[in-house]
Write a structure and sequence with these properties.
The chain is built from 15 helices and 18 strands. Helix 2 (about 45-65) packs antiparallel against helix 4 (about 80-105) and helix 9 (about 245-260) packs across helix 10. The chain is of the alpha/beta class. It is globular and about 65 Å long. It has two domains: about 5-230 and about 430-455, Aldehyde Dehydrogenase, Chain A, domain 1 (3-Layer(aba) Sandwich); about 235-415, Aldehyde Dehydrogenase, Chain A, domain 2. The strands form four sheets. It has a seven-stranded mixed sheet with strand order 12-13-14-11-10-15-16, with helices on both faces. Strands 7-6-5-8-9-17 form a six-stranded mixed sheet, with helices on both faces.
């Protein structure tokens, strides 16, 4: 992309927000050189000093929530209250790692015949993060906070439609006082990523994004014998059993499907409801969807904003149309939407047949797929009949149901009577086509570290 300009487009209006000049190959080379030099000193910086700076990053985020949230909303259309919550969550992650890095990095003592044997966690060097647009701050900070506290330095290749967010994040670390080169944004295209991964100065790579992007990054990293971590797509199952609190289940289902206008890898997308409560759940679910306010994402009472790009909107419309043609039934009412922008009306599709997009593909927008099931075993079988395995939800107050779901659902997480959410205190990641490796908690910090075995005779 070097030599060309990139544009940030407001998805609510279709208007251009800002233009950017991508970095040239010489710019990238200089950034990699700076990262390598900074790592040599950063890795020896006392943990207390790293923590002081990370606390300061949290303070910078807290002090400028409005500014950063407005950038998020302007560039990718997230409703403003959700954008503010995203920025605040990033600040919380900074504080979490500042406060817990010491315990996460403690030596693991392992008794052997030696006088002293243990595992020490040592940083690896510059780590490249290839990040998506849907949570443009959070996805980056959940990588950057543990990576920097571990003694690594960060390089960010962000989605090209949120480059102002990417530069703002770089500013956060600069304003917090991190030494130059600890965290740098590379304004490069997806086509340029492979070259950066293969550069010997980059020691590891993490990606959050689509399956094709994940395969490409993993192939380049594998060929270069570098560790990689992938958090890819999801089509999370949401199971409702007869013992569930239906009011809570419905409210949670709506939020779990429509957060970020439905553009979340861990959003509940496939709903399996027991026949005994199907009608009661469905009537409330549909009514709640029809009551959602779709509109200007800068307004505080907006529930659903535009999708991030017109291309994403068109892909979703095609998936829904194909599913309806195959036999899925739309339960929600129609809406009048703005003529300009990337808008899509929230929808619930019932009984999408096997083979249709709603049954087997990830629908990245405010569309829920709903089926009636006769038992928990039936629900789990349908839930597991998916290429994806990121998160899963069970609503039930029956201990046997809970044990069965936890044991049998093929997913990186199972949340009971609550929606799937990422939390700095808990490991986060998926199985199958949803990726490999774990972010957050101690796992996220240790993902890109040398677990060095030490044995002293």
């Amino acid at each position: 992309m070097a030599g060309k300009t990139a544009q940030s487009i407001n998805p609510a209006t279709g208007e251009m927000v800002e233009t950017f000049s991508p970095h040239t190959p010489s710019d990238v080379d200089a950034a990699l050189g700076l990262a390598t030099g900074r790592f040599a000193s950063w890795r020896t910086t006392l943990l207390d000093e790293r923590a002081r700076l990370m606390h300061r990053a949290g303070e910078v985020l807290d002090a400028q929530v409005s500014r950063f949230a407005q950038t998020i909303t302007r560039e990718m259309g997230k409703p403003i209250t959700q954008a503010e919550a995203e920025v605040k969550k990033c600040a919380a992650a900074c504080r979490h790692y500042a406060e817990h890095a010491g315990s996460y990095l403690q030596d693991e003592i392992i008794p052997t015949e030696a006088s002293h044997s243990f595992v020490r966690h040592l940083p690896m060097g510059p780590v490249l993060a290839v990040m998506p647009w849907n949570f443009p701050f959070w996805q980056v900070f959940r990588f950057a906070a543990p990576a920097l506290m571990a003694g690594n330095v960060g390089l960010l290749k962000h989605a090209s439609n949120v480059w102002r967010c990417a530069l703002d994040i770089e500013d956060v670390f600069r304003e917090a006082g991190f030494p130059e080169g600890c965290f740098q944004t590379l304004l490069v295209s997806s086509e340029d990523v492979e070259g950066v991964i293969r550069d010997s100065r980059v020691k590891a790579v993490t990606l959050t994004g689509s399956g094709p992007a994940g395969r490409s990054v993993a192939a380049a990293a594998g060929d270069s014998l570098k560790p990689s971590l992938l958090e890819l797509g999801g089509s999370d199952a949401f199971i409702v059993m007869p013992s569930a609190d239906l009011d809570k289940a419905v409210a949670t289902a709506v939020k779990a499907r429509t957060q970020n206008s439905g553009q979340s890898c861990i959003a509940a997308k496939r709903f399996f409801v027991h026949a005994d409560v199907y009608d009661a759940f469905t009537s409330r679910f549909v009514a709640a969807f029809d009551a959602l306010k779709v509109g200007d994402p800068t307004q505080r009472d907006t529930d659903i904003g535009p999708l991030a790009t017109q291309k994403i909107r068109d892909e979703l419309a095609s998936q829904v149309s194909e599913s309806e043609s195959a036999g899925a039934v739309r339960l929600t009412a129609g809406r009048n939407l703005p003529e300009s922008g990337a808008w899509f009306a929230p929808a619930i599709l019932a009984e999408a047949p096997a083979g249709s997009p709603a049954a087997h593909e990830e629908l990245f927008g405010p569309v829920a797929s709903l089926w009636k099931v006769d038992s928990l075993a039936d629900a789990i079988a349908h839930a597991n009949d998916s290429a994806f395995g990121l998160g899963s939800v069970l609503f039930s107050n029956d201990d046997a149901d809970i044990d069965q779901a936890v044991q049998q659902l093929d997913a990186g997480a199972t949340f009971v009577n609550s929606m799937v959410a990422s939390d700095p205190r808990l490991p986060f990641g998926g199985v199958k086509a949803s990726g490999y490796g774990r972010e957050l908690a101690a796992d996220g910090m240790r993902a890109f570290m040398n677990r060095k075995t030490v044995s002293i005779a």
